[in-house]
Amino acid sequence: MILRKAKFSDVEAIYALINDYADKGLMLARSRNTLYESLREFTLAEENGVIVGVGALHTCWDELGEIRALAVAPSMARTGIGRMIVEKLTEEALAIGVVTLYALTYQPGFFAKLGFVEKPKETLSHKVWKECINCAKFPNCDEIAMVKILPNS
Ligand SMILES: CC(C)(COP(=O)(O)OP(=O)(O)OC[C@H]1O[C@@H](n2cnc3c(N)ncnc32)[C@H](O)[C@@H]1OP(=O)(O)O)[C@@H](O)C(=O)NCCC(=O)NCCS
Question: What pLDDT digit, counting tens, does each position of 75-115 carry?
Fold first, then answer.
């Protein structure tokens, strides 16, 4: 198993992994356009040449970072890949000075295992909601905000 940054040639695999879950209502869909625009945000887990997990670190305001588009291949679930990706993205977040790292998720239990704490969504910066207008669920967001304060402060 290796963790590495994404390349253009990974986009179809990232697209498939995320949108298979999105089709089942388990996470938000991502277009190819979005993936090409945010390619440098992605870290991937690869085993024997196959992409088995993806996740991205997005920044939107001072000291504010989001873990998003996190997905592990169903056949490899609960084998520690999600944790590895989040830990790698957290290292990236620390390196650039993120203090508040958050995820908007339907899997609060997973993030709780990694030291994130549930917070009322309203306590996050309003900048977080900029992209929500593009979401099919807007304005009826049912995701849960999970937050981790990093030792950059
Ligand atoms: C949520 C997801 C990323 C977890 O990845 P994973 O590789 O299966 O998780 P890990 O094996 O690294 O689990 C780490 C810990 O969290 C626990 N965990 C995993 N999924 C969990 C869940 N849904 N609820 C509660 N705990 C969970 C594991 O048991 C493990 O606990 P342990 O340290 O005590 O052994 C994966 O199930 C997934 O891709 N789900 C569908 C897409 C999705 O919901 N993404 C999140 C969008 S923000």
Answer: 999 999 999 999 999 999 999 999 999 999 999 999 999 99
The long-range contacts involving 125-132, CB below 8 angstroms and separated by at least 24 positions, are: 125/60, 125/61, 125/64, 127/60, 127/61, 127/64, 128/60, 128/61, 128/64, 128/66, 128/102, 128/104, 130/60
Overall number of domains in the chain: 1
Whole-structure pTM value: 0.95
Read off the CATH number of the domain in which 44 is found.
3.40.630.30
Q: Which domain holds residue 105?
A: 2-149
| CB atoms closer than 10 angstroms to residue 5 | 13
**Residue ranges around ligand 1 (CB below 6 Å):** 21, 26-27, 70-72, 77-83, 103, 105-107, 109-110, 113
Strand 64-72 versus strand 100-105 pairing type: parallel
